[in-house]
Design brief:
This protein has six helices and no strands. By secondary structure, the chain is mostly helical. It has one domain.
């Protein structure tokens, strides 16, 4: 139990530092920015209560907001992701009798895991960029930001998943 708690704290701090020091300075073609800190919510055990998803999402989002100067956008988007992630996990989880598992490509298989990650990241990116723009005036740029960041974040999460499960 204590080892699991320490590993979660390490993931929290590592993803926060990676976002603040590295990923926040990556802007592919000025539109796509990787935001893989959502991976922290995606690897929580399936028995985690929804309120804890929302609380951890808020804490991680607030920490990211403090370091990246995005007032409330990451916190709001991660709170929404924390609300939706348990439903997505139930939708894409294996249908066997095992109720308690940690989401990974080994347990869920690649197709289900990729759907789970993609839709979670898509919901996060839509919320983040809509909060950032706070209008639909330049909806083409908004869609490019959402699509580019979703794909780039999903690729980084897949890479981190391969490293984590090795």
């Amino acid at each position: 139990m204590f080892q699991t708690f320490i590993s979660r704290i390490v993931w929290f701090v590592m993803l926060l530092l990676l976002q603040a020091l590295v990923f926040n300075h990556v802007h592919i073609f000025g539109y796509a920015t990787p935001m893989p800190y959502i991976y922290f919510l995606l690897i929580l055990p399936s028995v985690t209560p929804r309120w804890l998803y929302v609380l951890l999402g808020f804490l991680l989002g607030l920490s990211v907001d403090l370091f990246t100067n995005t007032p409330g956008m990451a916190a709001g988007a991660l709170c929404l992701s924390g609300l939706v992630t348990p439903w997505l996990l139930k939708a894409f989880a294996p249908k066997d009798d095992n109720d308690s598992f940690v989401p990974s490509h080994k347990i869920m298989e690649w197709s289900s895991f990729m759907k789970y990650v993609f839709f979670s990241v898509l919901i996060y990116c839509v919320a983040f960029f809509v909060l950032e723009a706070f209008s639909f005036f330049d909806w083409q740029i908004l869609l490019i930001n959402i699509a580019g960041s979703t794909l780039l974040t999903t690729l980084f999460i897949v890479a981190m998943e391969l490293i984590r499960t090795k």
